[in-house]
Amino acid sequence: MDDKMVMDTVPEYKRFTYADYCSWEDDERWELIDGVAYAMSAPSQAHQEILGKLYIKISTFLSGKPCKVFLAPFDVRLNYDSGDDTVVQPDVMVICDRTKLDGKSCNGAPDLVIEIMSPSSTMRDKVLKYRKYLQAGVREYWIVDPDYKTVSVHLLKNDEYGVRVYGIENTMPVSVLEGCKINLAEVFAED
Q1: Residue ranges per domain, the chain?
Q2: Less packed terminus of the chain by CB within 10 Å, N or C?
């Protein structure tokens, strides 16, 4: 399924909240952005391999440190305190403020969010989520492109994102995790 909104099948005036989202069946994955429901398709093998490598590298670095790393599916309620109509499931996220964790979701902005693009999620990752992560105050947002083997790193400064693009030949710093570096040749290596 592509980035097609559920809104094609429900009345245009209908917007959903986290309470609605929690009442839906668990056999499908959904995200809410400004109350609009988006179906999430199954990830590709390349997506899963990249996700696994990034998770292992970050998890290993964080061993014994206060920040926690999570994989999708794990709900992030970006506006839980005002409307509660935006719930996303980033591929990888790092949360350093453990008071944001309630046992089943993150309430507020993670420190680091990583989205691995697929043909069905490109628009959502580059436009919709970009805007929501910026508004919520996500300090570092990565958009990983498996086809071009690049990572666009968006760093929050003065309520705006600055961007830097890294390629397979780079070892990339993780700005919100001082001392953490990711060798992209290892992340994008085909096993």
Answers
A1: 41-188
A2: C
